Amino acid sequence: MTTASSSAWVGDNSSGQPSTAIPLRDCIRVLNGFGRSLESILPKLRDGYIAPDTATARSLAAQYPQAFFLAPSGETFHNVTVTGGKPREQGPLALKRELAELQTQVDTVQADLSANELATEALTRDIADLTATLDAKTHEQRDAERESANSGAALQQMEAETARIEGRLQQWQLAADRNQDQRQSHQDLISRKRDEAAAFESERTIIEAQVAELTEKIAALRLSRSCGARRPRRAPPQRRRQLRADPSSL
Question: pLDDT tens digit string along 81-98?
Answer without folding.
Answer: 877 755 555 566 767 777
